[in-house]
């Protein structure tokens, strides 16, 4: 189930992170004996779609692109903590509208050329350029000149300046406190123009970057071989010498091979059918990595469709769902949720208890709202296992309070289309589609999925929820660009999400954890196999001596 | 002969055009909008519109089809939506694996099927016949994944005789080819048996027996060649079938064939790849049948005369 859920994240997927400074790595994990060397084998069922950082946006290529390229900003492995990477240092102007970065000196692309500020400008313009057809353009919306460039009225982003050979200046059209995160996501990876042009549209198969690894060989349909970049700008990173990704490997077979030691990481996780067996085996603790990801699964209640325009109805339904039971359907690989943010996200409110499961109270509230006899509605879900089963369990819970929900299990794109069409889908179970944070900042859980801007045709705010007051507070919070105000900002977001829950546009259901299977020889904490911003952190994992 | 070939090739071209047209209309009539999938969840409607425009999805369907056919005639199968790279090399890269598995699978099913079919026909209504027929029945009705997993578990995971998964050496080929072969052999056994029974009842066979020709020679030299025609036709069909991908077998054994590519493309609504694979498969089916028709006269001179 994990497999299907995650596969479908071609859209919804993506978590972000990159090679962090070895210093921070060493500082955070002094106890780890990180042996150098080793060649490992990783398996996936599906092809690696592309390694072009302006295009790749699924959970398989996300990790790999992270390691092939470097970005101005990155994260300490296993954490949501930002650190400068390709940038040596940076400053933010008091108004939050100007970001100035000094590049590290002498960093080289794997083609041997030194990285210069013009590469930064080129790479980000390339990600935004409509001709690239990249899914990440929208992240850079705060850069001055974005609208003109995105609409084809300008030939570049006016807001990126390269005054000298080591400085890049970003001018923003509005304050964006998440801007440093934006520069750490894959779409902000720095690429050399000459290599992109030489690849003639096939950069995704012939990537050139300045990351920890380089692509050595790609046999279409079979395997990809990545070798350590000997020129990487942080000494001692990465730890392994190479990793080979074998594709077309059935998860079940990959697991058998892993148990025999032929495979080091089964990238698709553990199939539900094998999960209990493996988790009860004596080797379980060496083989299974269970990590939190920045994910929340939820049911949207469309505030523009009766009776969900009534807040009491929405609150009642929040009390009607037995989340513990839903967690059991996914083999316990999730934690019941009571708020939009996942626990690993800054701004998660540990004090908030949400709406407890209480059928009697739910019925009473429905009666108060004038629906003593319940009502009929429609619940949308994607059609890959286990999503329809989860939808059925939700359906049963709803029936217990008198709400008759008809299930519409459709292909992912059709559910997304229905969600983004006003007045179309009363309820949607988000499983298989949403929402995994692109970067570890609470705003990422608001704007597109709970904010007014997302409540548009083709948008992802499937509750069509728009609270003007909260919207103002969200804009205010995202204007606090001063890094010293970040605690205050997180506090502001925490309150926003608690207030969202008072309006109950969602039923938060659970936070899915990610399970990866690894061989016994692989070392490191779970948080570098399920890194909150990059899934598998190839820079940090190591083979035990 | 040349005339026949010309006629059949023209037919083949028309069939392919028809297949292309039908697949095209079906795929583009799908409610799923590839542009939305490509654009991702952060896309503005403007981005989606841009992508749709660049992919040519905003053009009228007949124009899109015309463009596709024009490119197709130049050997260009278009670019994958998802992988953002040309489709033809993706398919070509997987052809060797598909062809190898196809050849090995057919060889195994024909060898097993012929042997069992002949024995069953000769020992008609005996215990061996009934055993063979039962086995072939089991063979044709067993799901591929069951046999594949069973072989994998016994011969790879437990005994370790063969690698569990992958491609490149003859050892890798054994289990996937046998999965296809064992299952397909059932069909061949049944067809060969009934064709043989038919032939064995004919006058010339009785004459041969009467002349004192050894029984084995009668069966193998006199009767069998005449029973081969349906087998040739069947191989023609199998070529087409296996070329379109042995999806299940490829999945279980990590065999990098066309089936895997097709399956992924379907899940991702990657229309250019689906189109490409469909056309290649259709071509294989047409060519397989053509090949069978061309070979038949050499096996049976009566067809040449007719």
UniProtKB/TrEMBL annotation, chain A:
CDD domains: PBP2_NikA_DppA_OppA_like. Residues 1-33 form the signal peptide. InterPro entries: Peptide/Ni-bd, SBP_5, SBP_5_CS, SBP_5_dom. Its main location: periplasm. Keywords: Signal. It comes from the Bacteria. It is found in: Periplasm. Residues 82-454 form the Solute-binding protein family domain. PANTHER family: D,D-DIPEPTIDE-BINDING PERIPLASMIC PROTEIN DDPA-RELATED, PERIPLASMIC BINDING COMPONENT OF ABC TRANSPORTER. Belongs to the bacterial solute-binding protein 5 family. This is Peptide/nickel transport system substrate-binding protein/oligopeptide transport system substrate-binding protein. It comes from Ancylobacter amanitiformis.
UniProtKB/TrEMBL annotation, chain B:
Its main location: membrane. Residues 95-296 form the ABC transmembrane type-1 domain. InterPro entries: BPD_transp_1_N, MetI-like, MetI-like_sf. Keywords: Cell membrane, Membrane, Transmembrane, Transmembrane helix, Transport. The keyword Repeat does not apply. Pfam families: BPD_transp_1, BPD_transp_1_N. The chain crosses the membrane at residues 12-30, 99-122, 134-159, 171-189, 227-253, 273-296. It is a multi-pass membrane protein. It comes from the Bacteria. It is found in: Cell membrane. Belongs to the binding-protein-dependent transport system permease family. This is Peptide/nickel transport system permease protein. It comes from Ancylobacter amanitiformis.
